[in-house]
Amino acid sequence: MTDELKNKALEKGVPIIKDEGLAFLLNYIREHECKTILELGTAVGYSAIQMASLAKDIFIDTIEKNEEMYKQALVNIKNAGLEKQIEVHFLPIEEFETDKKYDLIFVDAAKAQYGRYLEKFLDNLKDEGAMIFDNMVFHGLVYEPENIASRSLRSLVKKIVKFREMVHNDKRFDIMEFDNIGDGILVLTRRKSGS
Ligand SMILES: C[S@@+](CC[C@H](N)C(=O)[O-])C[C@H]1O[C@@H](n2cnc3c(N)ncnc32)[C@H](O)[C@@H]1O
Predict the structure, then answer these.
(1) What is the pLDDT at residue 115?
(2) Which residue among 5, 7, 62, 66 is best mutated to probe the pocket of ligand 1, counting the most ligand atoms within 8 A of its Cβ?
(3) In 103-142, where does DSSP find H-type helix?
(4) Residue of 93, 117, 132, 136 to mutate, ligand 1, most atoms within 8 A of C-beta
(5) What is the per-residue pLDDT for 1?
(6) Using CA atoms, how far apart are residues 137 and 2, in angstroms rounded to an integer?
(7) DSSP assignment, residue 38?
(8) Residue ranges of the domains in the chain?
């Protein structure tokens, strides 16, 4: 079922998480027993379905602003029988407000906005929770942004590089970077005081 969903998404050019990145994400959820998850960027619900399928007591809020994607996600989630575990919110991430606290926030939407998303949702992260960011190497382009011909792509990639530098230098956080997994994964947790 999820293989079919993955193949359909890839055929239609819907950007979904790479296999290795997904395996890392699912493993993290299992190991850290994450039960409440906020996902930024639903697309057609592929990663949300994969995460929710791990256990019946995992609950996911996921946000998508593209109507076509949103509608397809609803269909896919219903077909997977996971409507009780996954709630898709149809609006721009910038407008989503909640008081909920999550074990995990999976960030997989507009790459240029990662810094903003981090600040916006930090209060929604439990003390021991983690934020996981996908596409941190952006097809390897973060290593040589100066060589990118397209101006808009260069600007986007530079924003990712800046975000990486920013979280490196921010003493509020501990980060782990896995550049060789999928399209590059970064895990961010709160630094314990005194460490
Ligand atoms: C990489 S895809 C998500 C893939 C999905 N997590 C998966 O692996 O199956 C990113 C999605 O984020 C959505 N998106 C981008 N910027 C957004 C925003 N500001 N608000 C809501 N959705 C956004 C896009 O429409 C797109 O569907």
Answers:
(1) 95
(2) 66
(3) 114-121
(4) 93
(5) 67
(6) 26
(7) E
(8) 2-189
Low-confidence ranges of the chain (pLDDT < 70): 1, 194-195
The letter for the amino acid at 65 is K
Q: Which atom of ligand 1 is nearest to the CA of 92?
A: 20
Pairing relationship of beta strands 86-90 and 102-107 according to DSSP bridges: unpaired
Identity of the amino acid at 153:
L
Two structure tokens written together for 71:
């509608």
The Å distance, Cα 136 to ligand 1 centre, comes to: 15
Rg for the chain (alpha carbons), in Å? 16
- CATH fold of 2-189 reads Rossmann fold (3.40.50)
Q: What is the dihedral of CA 185, 27, 188, 33, to 10 degrees?
A: 160
How many other C-beta atoms lie within 10 A of the C-beta of residue 99? 6
